[in-house]
Amino acid sequence: MYIPTLDDMLSARERISPHIHRTPVLTSRMLNELTGAQLFFKCENLQKAGAFKARGASNAVFGLSEGQAKKGVATHSSGNHGTCLSYAAGRRGIPCTVVMPRTAPQAKKDAVKGYGGHVVECEPSTSSREAVFADVVAETDAEFVHPYNDHRVIAGQATCAAELIEQVEGLDAVVAPIGGGGMVSGTCLTLSNLAPYVKIYAAEPEQADDACRSFKAGRIIADDAPDTIADGLKVPLKELTWHFVSRYVSDVHTASEQEIVDAMKVIWKRLKIVIEPSSAVPLATILKYPEAFVGKRVGVIVTGGNVDLERLPWN
Q1: What integer pLDDT is reported at residue 298 of this predicted model?
Q2: Rounded CA gap, 177 and 7, in Å?
């Protein structure tokens, strides 16, 4: 297992710079008063393809040799990684196949297709996803770009935290959502090297709390088919992301479905930005566990904005 390094992050930053946005950081006096902390929202919902995963996907795609690239890329994804890999593959002019749960939001399936990706549906479980994907790779011989258990992807995601600490001085903590752990791992990679005094917190839905249980148990505990409105956070940790989570994360906090919806509404109302449920989980946990953040300068990574407007969680 290759563990990505700071040099990998720096190389990724140079490699992907023509293909991504340097996303803005937003603040809200009302949200600061509500939480008792100074919150700095890193808006990856405004990233290319609508999610932070454009970073890791672009690093993987543009790091391929010409021979590898000709065969195309493939992945399994509940939505954003598949969309972002399709985006990056389209930029390089190579094919992309994405295995997606049949229950994934239609907006995310449409986004994959809109960037030129080919969608193959599977049942909404990790076991089904991986079985169907194995058939796809056997047929296409495409390069597998895992959504998060891939050193190229983690190095790409790590560029987000690198931007954040340049944009906001004196951070005490950073909070990011956790599913498989790609963004959290990238955050750990960057901050452990460049700002080791910054605490890292992971935020997770109560109904998909395998990372929280893993963190407490000291080993990976995987759920096969959790059910939560935060559809981007249903996947389990893997060996590479567990390496970072187990070593550098200070705590994993969870939020209920209603707390996630309430936080999502607050962000829509106060920051005037469209975010998806997964992106609301960090604020939900900050509101739920204020004692960890009161009086501190906290970076909040808003991971994506690819929400199905026909299926909003409060409707």
Answers
A1: 98
A2: 25
- At 179, list the tokens: 């599913």
CATH top-level class of 54-144: alpha beta
CA-based diameter of the chain, in Å? 55
In tens, the pLDDT along 15-45 reads: 999 999 999 999 999 999 999 999 999 999 9
- Neighbour tally for 16: CB within 10 Å: 24
Q: Provide CATH code, domain 6-52+150-302.
A: 3.40.50.1100
| Model confidence pLDDT, tens digit, residues 164-199 | 999 999 999 999 999 999 999 999 999 999 999 999
pLDDT for the residue 235: 86
User: Same CATH fold, 54-144 and 6-52+150-302?
Assistant: yes
Q: What is the pLDDT of residue 78?
A: 75
Query: Can you name the residues that pair with 101 across neighbouring β-strands?
Result: 122
What is the torsion angle, in degrees rounded to the nearest 10, for the CA atoms of residue 272, residue 277, residue 278 and residue 280? 50
- Measured between alpha carbons, how far is 294 from 306 in angstroms, rounded to an integer? 30
Residue 216: HSE in the Cβ half-sphere, 13 Å Cα cutoff: 7
Can you give the residue ranges of every domain in the chain?
6-52+150-302, 54-144
Q: What is the pLDDT of residue 103?
A: 86
pTM: 0.94
